[in-house]
Design goal:
Elements (H helix, E strand, L loop, with lengths): L12 H7 L2 E3 L1 H6 L5 E5 H8 L12 H19 L4 E11 L2 E13 L5 E6 L5
Parallel strand pairs: 2-5
Antiparallel strand pairs: 1-2, 3-4, 4-5
Amino acid sequence: MDQDWNVIFSYTRKQAIEDGVLIDVTEQANQLGFKVNTVVTDHLYGDYLTPPAGLEGEGQSVEGRLHDLLFRTLIAAKTFGARDRVNFDVLFLMSPGKWATVKILAVMGPGDHGEPVLTIMLPEDD
């Protein structure tokens, strides 16, 4: 069944990165051995990767928290094998002495040109 479809609206991954809806972390991911373009959602970045105020003295930084997230993503991907998505948990320090266990979803899918890309996000129900 061949049909011509009129595209009413499209929103590319590139546009989402330019708009700040997706945060490109490919450079940091490559340093850990990732071979594909990698992004995190703005919700994950703002709520968990950016340390809450008052944690500077606890050694918390965006870079450190991102490293931990990417490392856990790498472990989950290797553990669960050739799936296109994996769910796993990451611990984030949210205030002195208070840790949050955060459910994470990493999805491998096609980019704007069909290339493999990785998106790391919070599941929809969070």
